[in-house]
Amino acid sequence: MAQRPILLNPGPVTLTERVRAALTRADWCHREPEFAQLTRAINRDLAAVYPDLGAGFDAVLMTGSGTAAVEAMLASFAPEAHRTLVLANGVYGERMAKMLAAHGRPHGVLSHRWTEPVDTARLERTLAEDRSITHVAVVHHETTTGRLNDLDAIGRVCKAFGARLLVDAVSSFGAEQLDVAECNIAALAATANKCLHGAPGLSFVLARRELWQAPPSRAVSVYLDLFGYHRVQHDSGFSPFTQAVPAAFALAEALAELRDEGGWLARRALYRRRAARIAAVLEQAGVRTLLAPSEYSAVLWSYVLPEGLSYTALHDALKREGFVIYAGQGDLGAQIFRIAHMGDIREPDLDRLCAALSRILPGPR
Ligand SMILES: *Cc1c(COP(=O)(O)O)cnc(C)c1O
Question: Atom 12 in ligand 1: which residue has the minimum CA distance?
Answer without folding.
Answer: 170
